[in-house]
Amino acid sequence: MSLTLTQVYLTAWLVGLLGGVHCLTMCGGLVGSLTVGLAPDIRCDPWRMLPYQFTANLARVIGYGLAGALFGGLGALLLQVDSLQIAQRALYAFAGIMMILLGLYLGGWWRLLAATERLGLILWRRLQPLTRRLLPIHSLGQAAAIGFIWAWIPCGLVYSVLITAIATGSPLDGAGVMLAFGLGTLPNLLGIGLLAGAAARIAERDWVRRIAGLLIIGFGLHALWRLTG
User: Fold this and answer.
1) What is the 8-class DSSP label of residue 119?
2) Residue range 84-90: average pLDDT?
3) What is the pLDDT of residue 183?
4) What are phi and psi of 192, to 5 degrees?
5) ∠ CA(54), CA(27), CA(129), 5° rounding?
6) Residue 22 and residue 19: Cα distance in Å, rounded?
7) 143, 159, 161, 194: which one has the fewest Cβ atoms less than 10 Å from its Cβ?
8) Which has more confidence, 158 or 192?
9) Whole-number Cα distances in Å, 25 to 28, 30, 83, 106, 146
10) Burial 133-143 (b: 16+ CB within 10 A, else e)
11) DSSP 195
């Protein structure tokens, strides 16, 4: 794994972890509907509820991985249809620019990437009714199906990291980038235990988000600087 790919993975994980406030805003309703949608005998027992929440979130992360593989495959196709050296440099520059934009978004300096949420509204309008058909939830299979559909919710952070996955030029690496992002979102969206509480408190601190934003911007600038060498 190259240093640059390591930086992309770390960027995806940090955006997932410290973008928790945004994730709770976008996905909080779905988390709530998952809880309310559980059969009453399950919903009344936190310990019985936990496997359903975990299963739904695991399926969501798997959905991210599948989407990342598809977009990484798109990047691989780009490497095939153009001059390899030119395509590699273009994808490299694209990754650097996306990391800079993600850093600006995470640090709260520029919310341009929020506009990407409009891209998924058409798809989400078709998928959202499927979740209603799966309620009430009586089985882990139903929870997994809802979680997988949840992966396609129109979210600026999800779509921005997904677009970055194109720059890996590999289905495997594209999946890895999205899995790293998904794992970063787990503490906030599972909402359980001390880890979740600590992650939420960290994500709410502006200075933490700004330091992470500057780090990611640095990754992007480093990628672009290497192109000049």
Assistant:
1) G
2) 73
3) 92
4) -130, 150
5) 90
6) 5
7) 194
8) 158
9) 6, 10, 43, 15, 18
10) ebeebeeeebb
11) H
